[in-house]
Amino acid sequence: MSGATARGAGLTLAGQAARILVQFASVVVLARMLSPRDYGLLAIGLVVVGIGEVFRDLGLSTAALRVPALSRRQRDGLFWLNTAAGLVVAAAAVCTAAPIATAFSEPELEPVIRALAGTFVLNGLAAQYRAGLSRQLRFGAVAAADVAAQLVSFAVAVTAAGMGAAYWALVVQQLTQAAIGLVLVVALARWLPGRPRRGAGLRPLLRFGSGVTGTQVVYYLGSNLDNLSLGLWAGPAALGVYNRGYQLLMTPLNQLRSPGTTLAVPVLSRLEREPLRFDEYLVRGQLALGYTLVTGLALVAGAAGPVVDLVLGDRWHAVAPVLALLAVAGSAQTLAYVGLWVYLTRGLSAALLRYHLVTLVLSAGCIAAGSPFGVLGVAAGYAAAALLEWPLSLWWLSRVTEVPLRALQLGAARITACAAAAGGACHAVTQLAGGWPSVARIVAGGLAGLAVYGLAAALPAVRHDLCGVLALGGRMVARGR
To answer: Keywords in UniProt for this one (predicted)?
Structure first.
């Protein structure tokens, strides 16, 4: 990995760590100020509005990151396309808010969706500024803007909740974060778009972006079938319980994984003509994600009960089994994540779309089977779908392009075995220490899980993996100074 890449990775991870801390503080504080129904209403609004965000982007952020060179005219054209798309999608959200609220039998959803529509305009304006900063490898600037926006919006939400704003505190938080983020990336980029012009060479970017958009729509639907199912048939309160588990685990997980794509796609694009280095980077990427994120997820699953008691408080006990099941799902998704890098790097958007159509059907079947059993059934269906999709993802990818399939499979097998053993040890210890304070149970379980990794390191293959991940982390820290 080059010095610039290592430094960029280090800055990105540092920024994401800061964002996760702020997100964690938000979950801890606001969960004690708001009710499950408040969170459920926002969750329904974000699910419905979120699909508009996919159309707002048009896949152009990814297209801008992927191309080796981007002219000034192309950048200007992409800015105006994203801005126009944001305005159109915002108008559509405002017009459809009433029928959507009727479909969910929740009148409060109508003003919530109309308010959240403002994020389309703000994010449309910010899209190419963020893409430009990433193209320049200014990951530290992007991370700083994200953290600052999150801090300000958190403060605004706490103030609003303290004044009795209920779910409106969460809506204001979303709008404030988008607005502050826009102001900061514009200030950092120091660039103003020119007027759009003909012949800017946007067609290849639009062609690629359209394929990405289709894939993202299908992926979004598959990822949110759980929320839609609970919102339609169980109501906001049940969805609020599920949403707290999701926000506590999956949101920070996505915040850690997503920058990996921003970093990996331009790097892998430069390695396309060097197959051995390309494969090596891909395998190392999976090991780095697995021995860090999957390890953490295994420990969270093992200590789900005391984690929920400590973070959310006594009235959220029902979140614990949901959190454990989501940790299982997140582990499987993380192991498959590097495949997305290959699809995007090699322009295989059509193949990725077909794959996501298959997984959409699989997810729908699993979640439908679990829906009659309420929140836990939906969480179990979501986890089952993720476990089935992981081996399918590697097989599907190997059919359409060359990848180091065996190395990825063996690496994932080692990661899974270590994580399962560590999670089991963590759970056993937290159960044995049932009468202890939550913090003590979490610490004891975590130490038991890490002890398993210490024993696993006696195996040469696992020791080699762990040494490689530690060395990579050391280079990121050194380059980030």
So the answer is: Cell membrane, Membrane, Transmembrane, Transmembrane helix
* Same domain as 384, residue 291: yes
Say what angle helices 460-480 and 3-31 make with each other, to 10 degrees: 90
Q: Are residues 252 and 216 in the same domain?
A: yes
CA dist., res. 465 & res. 456, Å (int): 11
Cα 276 to Cα 330: distance, rounded to the nearest angstrom? 29
Q: How confident is the model at residue 70 (pLDDT cuts 50, 70, 90)?
A: low
166, 201, 236 - which closes a domain:
201
Residue 340: closest CA among 215, 228, 226 = 215
Q: Report residue 480's pLDDT band, with 50, 70 and 90 as the boundaries.
A: very low
Task: Give the torsion sign (CA, 240, 245, 250, 255).
Answer: positive
Clarify whether residues 183 and 217 are in a common domain.
no
Number of structural domains the chain divides into: 2
Name the pTM for this structure. 0.72
Model pLDDT for residues 88-97, shown as the tens digit of each residue:
889 998 998 9
Single residue among 201, 236, 258 that ends a domain in this structure: 201
Q: Are residues 192 and 119 in the same domain?
A: yes
Tokens linked to 78: 């992409």
Count of residues in the chain: 481
- Domain check: are 145 and 248 in the same one? no
Supply φ then ψ for residue 190, to 5 degrees. Answer: 55, 50
